[in-house]
Write a structure and sequence with these properties.
With 590 residues, the chain is an alpha/beta fold. The protein folds into 3 domains: 79 residues, Immunoglobulin-like; 328 residues, TIM Barrel (Alpha-Beta Barrel), CATH 3.20.20; 96 residues, Sandwich (Immunoglobulin-like). The chain is 23% helix and 19% strand. Strands 10-11-12-13-14-15-16-17 form an 8-stranded parallel β-barrel. Strands 2, 3, 6, 7, 8 and 9 form a 6-stranded antiparallel β-sheet that branches. The N terminus is likely disordered.
C-alpha cells in the first residue's frame, strides 16, 4: 500500500486482497517483477534497480484475478499524469528541505482563516509575479506581494483542494480527487515536480508566519482507489444493494472500511510530516463515519487543525448535534451555517425577529445552553462567504460599508472567524454563485486592493485587535445579564424604543473580558459592540460613563487608543445604516 523511495532500494506494495497474482511493471525498462502476498492481502517486491535510475519513470501493476488480467495504476502514487489518454503513475523522490521547519502554528482559537483558491491569488494580469509562467501556479501563490498581503491580514490560509483531480468532474476548483498522494500538476510550473512546488509554497508561507490548511475531498471520487481495490471496498452501499450518492458528485467513499480508514489517516499524516500542512478542512465531512472522525482526531498531532462541513445531500453519518455529544471532547470544529445564514440576512438588512434571535445565538458561539449545538465557541467556524455561492461584495450589492459590517460581525463573534478570499478588497464574481469551473471569475484583481486600501488596512487592524482582546476568545458559555447577579458576561442592547421599535436588523451588546478579573475590573474593561444591518439609522442607549470609539465602521477606522469620546446626546449613540462600531471605556486602553 505504501511505497517508500530510497536511492538504493525501493520497496513497492499494493493492497489487492482478491488478486491471485500481481506483477510490478516498469514501463520504460519493459521489465517486470513478480510480487509476494502477505496475510493482509498486500503484495510487495523490492526490484534490484538503484533509485536514481527510476526517478520520474512510469510504472504500473498487472493484476490477475482468475482469467482476468488488468492494468492498475498505483493508488498511492506520488506523481500522476495522463499519457495517451490514460493515467500513469511515476516514480518520484519527495525529499524537500524546509527552510522554515521550526514554524509552529498557533492554537486554532488564535487564528483567522482566509479561504482561498490557490491559483486565484496570482492568475489575474494585475498579479505581480516575477515570471509570467508563475501566473496561476503554486509558485505564484508564493509571490512577495501575495505573501505581503496575507501577512498584513495576519491570517491562516485555507486552500481549496490541491490533490490530483479529474479535470472535467473537478473543474477549476478541483473537488474530484482521483487519488490523495499526488498533487495537481496543472498548477505547477514544472509539472514533473508539482509536489515539490507545493512544499516550497508552504515553506514560503510559513516563513511569513502563515499557517496552511488544506481542503480534502475524501467523500467521493477516489477513482484510482476503485480501479485498484474495487467498488465494494471503496464505495458505501445502501440496504437495497445500490451505492450511496450522498455528495451529489458520485458514489460515497466507504470510510468505515478499515483499509480505507487506514489509507486516509496515513495520507493525512504524510501531508503533515512531509508537506508541512497545519490543518485540514473535510469537504462534506458528515459523510465520514464517526469512528473514522474520532480516529483522525486521535492519530493526528494535536497541533493540527481539524475542520469539517457537518452536512451532505443525504446519507449523513453525524451532524451538528454530535459536537455536544460524541465529538464533545475532540478538537473538531465545523462550519456554522446558522451563523452564515443569519449573518447574511442581517448584513443585507432583510431579517425578522426570528433571524435576529438566531444571529444573537450565533454571536455567542451557538452554545447548547442558548439553544444551539456547541459546548465551546472553538467548535464553530464563523463565516458569511466562501468559495460556494456569491462573494461577500456580491451578497451586499457592492456596498463597502456592509462589507466591513459583515467582516466586523465575523471577527467580533465567539468562535473561529473565516473570511472568503478578497472580501477585504471587494472581490466580485459579478453575481455568479457557482464558479467551480470559471477560471475567468476565480481570480483576484489586485488593483482592487489599491483602490480599496482603506478597507484592506482596516481589516488588517481589526484582525490584530481581535487577537489582542480577550473579549472575543471565550472558552465556554457566555452568561447573559439576567438582572439578578453582577456575574454576567454579555448584556444585549436593543435600539431605542424596543420592544415597540420595529428595527430587528440592529443589535448591540456589552461584553466583558473572560472571568479572571474581579467583578469591578471586568466591568471597567467592558466593550460595546454596535451593529446596524438595517436601511435606516438607529439610536442605542449607552451605559453610564464616557466611551471612546475604537472601531468606526462609517469611516473604516480601527485604532485601539480611540478617536476621542463617543459623540452622544443623553448617552444615545447614533449608528448609520449598514455600519458598525466598537466602544471602550474612555479611561482605559482595551
Amino acid at each position: 500500500m505504501d511505497r517508500s523511495f530510497r536511492y538504493k532500494k525501493n520497496k513497492f506494495s499494493i493492497y489487492c486482497p482478491d488478486a491471485e497474482e500481481v506483477t510490478l511493471v516498469i514501463d520504460d525498462f519493459d521489465k517486470s517483477w513478480s510480487m509476494k502476498r502477505n496475510a493482509r492481502g498486500a503484495w510487495a517486491v523490492t526490484p534490484d534497480i538503484p533509485g536514481q535510475q527510476l526517478h520520474n519513470l512510469s510504472y504500473h501493476y498487472r493484476v490477475r484475478v482468475g482469467r482476468s488480467v488488468r492494468k492498475v495504476v498505483d493508488p498511492m502514487a506520488t506523481r500522476l499524469a495522463i499519457v495517451g489518454g490514460e493515467y500513469r503513475s511515476f516514480f518520484q523522490q519527495l525529499y524537500f528541505q524546509h527552510k522554515n521547519n521550526r514554524f509552529s502554528a498557533p492554537p486554532i482559537d488564535k487564528i483567522v482563516i482566509y479561504e482561498s483558491h490557490l491559483p486565484a491569488l496570482s492568475r489575474h494580469p494585475s498579479a505581480a509575479v516575477t515570471k509570467e509562467i508563475y501566473r496561476g501556479t503554486y509558485l505564484g501563490a508564493a509571490a512577495d506581494h501575495v505573501l505581503d498581503h496575507l501577512q498584513h491580514l495576519d491570517v491562516a490560509v485555507e486552500f481549496l483542494p490541491l490533490h490530483y483531480s479529474d479535470r472535467k468532474l473537478g473543474g477549476d476548483w478541483g473537488y474530484y480527487s482521483v487519488l490523495y498522494s499526488a498533487m495537481r500538476d496543472d498548477l505547477a510550473v514544472d509539472k514533473e515536480n508539482a509536489n515539490m512546488e507545493v512544499m516550497k509554497t508552504i515553506d514560503a508561507l510559513h516563513g511569513r508566519g502563515i499557517p496552511v490548511i488544506l481542503d480534502v475531498v475524501f467523500n467521493h471520487g477516489a477513482e484510482l482507489w476503485v480501479k485498484a481495490w474495487g467498488e465494494n471496498v471503496v464505495y458505501r452501499k445502501l440496504d437495497d444493494g445500490g451505492f450511496c450518492h450522498g455528495s451529489g458528485c458520485g458514489a460515497t467513499v466507504k470510510t468505515e472500511n478499515s483499509h480505507i480508514r487506514k489509507v486516509m489517516i496515513d495520507t493525512l499524516l504524510n501531508l503533515v510530516k512531509q508537506y508541512g500542512f497545519d490543518g485540514f478542512r473535510f469537504d462534506l465531512g458528515a459523510l465520514h463515519d464517526k469512528r473514522t472522525m474520532l480516529e483522525i482526531d486521535k492519530r493526528l498531532p494535536k497541533r493540527v487543525y481539524l475542520i469539517a462541513e457537518p452536512w451532505a445531500l443525504s446519507g449523513n453519518q453525524w451532524g451538528k448535534q454530535d459536537m455536544s455529544d460524541g465529538f464533545a471532547h475532540t478538537r473538531w470544529a465545523i462550519w456554522n451555517d446558522d451563523f452564515r445564514e443569519s449573518a447574511r440576512i442581517f448584513a443585507q438588512g432583510y431579517g425578522d425577529y426570528q433571524n435576529r434571535d438566531r444571529l444573537m445565538r450565533s454571536i455567542v458561539g451557538s452554545h447548547v445552553k442558548d439553544g444551539g449545538w456547541a459546548l465551546r465557541p472553538q467548535q464553530s467556524i464563523n463565516y458569511i462567504s466562501c468559495h460556494d455561492g456569491r462573494t461577500l461584495a456580491d451578497l451586499v450589492g457592492g456596498n463597502k460599508h456592509r462589507v466591513f459590517l459583515s467582516i466586523f460581525l465575523v471577527l467580533t463573534s465567539q468562535g473561529i472567524p473565516m473570511l472568503g478570499e478578497g472580501s477585504e478588497m471587494l472581490y466580485t464574481k459579478h453575481g455568479h454563485d457557482n464558479s467551480y469551473d470559471r477560471p475567468d471569475l476565480n481570480q483576484l484583481d489586485w488593483d482592487s486592493s489599491t483602490q480599496h486600501r482603506d478597507l484592506v488596512e482596516a481589516v488588517g487592524r481589526l484582525v490584530a485587535l481581535r487577537k489582542q482582546l480577550k473579549h472575543f476568545q471565550y472558552k465556554g458559555h457566555l452568561k447573559a445579564n439576567d438582572q439578578k447577579s453582577g456575574w454576567w458576561d454579555i448584556d444585549w442592547i436593543y435600539p431605542t424604543g424596543y420592544p415597540h421599535h420595529d428595527n430587528v436588523n440592529a443589535i448591540a451588546y456589552i461584553i466583558r473580558p473572560p472571568r479572571r478579573y474581579q467583578l469591578w475590573r471586568r466591568a471597567r474593561h467592558s466593550l460595546i459592540i454596535l451593529l446596524n444591518g438595517s436601511h435606516s439609522g438607529v439610536n442605542f442607549q449607552l451605559p453610564e460613563g464616557d466611551w471612546r470609539v475604537i472601531v468606526d465602521g462609517l469611516r473604516f477606522k480601527v485604532n485601539p487608543p480611540g478617536f476621542g469620546v463617543a459623540p452622544n446626546a443623553n448617552h444615545h449613540y447614533h449608528l448609520q445604516p449598514g455600519t458598525c462600531a466598537m466602544l471602550a471605556p474612555a479611561t482605559l486602553l482595551p
